[in-house]
């Protein structure tokens, strides 16, 4: 995965929103990441620690909420959550490609001053 | 994204050998122009520099929003030209270029095809594809592991879309990163060559899940590679139970008819707006 590119987009968007709000420093960044994106948490944190240098988020904390994947099972007409990247319904065993949650990559909010 | 200066512009990417943006003109890497670029709408600060209270700024915005917006714009342009657009994704060496060369030859002259092809470096693929006579634009992504909607917009801008029926986007050989990037395509096609083994769909589920069609390539090599067809298809079905599956050898021509018939049918549906 291109965690570095993701963090660059994150920092650019965070800085844009912070400056638009009249802020000069970002204290923390809340990010929501779906488990189905394949993002590696360690790689994300490492990229953030390096790339925040020289930005107004240079001392910012990164607070990541990981969202588990949830698929829709057409047979059971219900959602099921899964920990791995493959979606098989725990009730009927049928596979599903109808992913309802788990692809998030959202900047939720910033703590600024 | 420019990985050299972090300016947010697509950096060393080139379209047919030319820089994607005039990034090289007087753009000194090393000078200080931290992101983001303030496009003439600065906010003057006349306040005193006393410590300010911490406060929360709500954003709720996807990091893919910019790409997704550009992808929708691409889709609008392609649709206005009645162009069927396919995004071909696979690992390097699975036979994307060979499949395209043979497909373009089979579809000509009834279907006028063009190609946007992405690679980190070289225009070898573009040169192979141009032997078919089809218009081809090569995107050299430099360090980037996938194409994004902006690159496709620039590249397709130099193609005579009005005179064309079908656009193939040959993505950078990679089974991970392209899955998150909508390019504005109608259909996403993932290739799986028999030489890669049966468990690729289980190893890279996000990419296979997003496929409208999966093409099993190099079937003429299935036997020497001891390719277990049943296992491969079962693995694929676990990840994506609905994708159309084609099994073919571009070299021998086996299975090419079904693939080309599907392309023709998809074109008709696209033109009728019934997808």
What is the topological layout?
The complex is a heterodimer of chains A (113) and B (275).
Chain A: H1 3-20, E1 26-34, H2 41-51, E2 61-67, E3 69-73, E4 78-82, E5 99-101, E6 105-112
Helix pairs in contact in A: 1-2
Chain B: E1 14-15, E2 18-19, E3 55-62, H1 65-80, E4 84-89, H2 96-107, E5 113-119, H3 124-130, E6 136-140, H4 149-157, E7 166-170, E8 187-193, H5 200-203, H6 205-209, E9 213-217, H7 229-239, E10 244-247, H8 256-272
Parallel strand pairs in B: 4-7, 4-8, 5-6, 5-7, 8-9, 9-10
Antiparallel strand pairs in B: 1-2, 1-6
Using the CA coordinates, give the radius of gyration of chain B: 21 Å
The share of residues in extended strands of chain A comes to 25-35%
The helix-strand sequence of chain A is HEHEEEEE
CATH superfamily of chain B: P-loop containing nucleotide triphosphate hydrolases
- Secondary-structure arrangement, i.e. CATH architecture of chain B: 3-Layer(aba) Sandwich
**CATH fold node name of the domain at 3-68 and 102-112 in chain A:** hypothetical protein PF0899 fold
Weakly predicted, low-confidence segments of chain B: 1-10, 22-35
Q: Uncertain regions of chain A: pLDDT < 50 for 5+ in a row?
A: none
Query: What is the helix content of chain B?
Result: 25-40%
Q: Give me the count of strands of chain A.
A: 6
Approximate shape of chain B: globular
The number of distinct helices of chain B, counting runs of at least 4 residues, comes to 8
- The assembly state of the depicted protein chains is heterodimer
Rough outline of chain A = elongated
CATH class annotation of chain B: Alpha Beta
List the secondary-structure elements of chain B in sequence, H or E.
Answer: EEEHEHEHEHEEHHEHEH
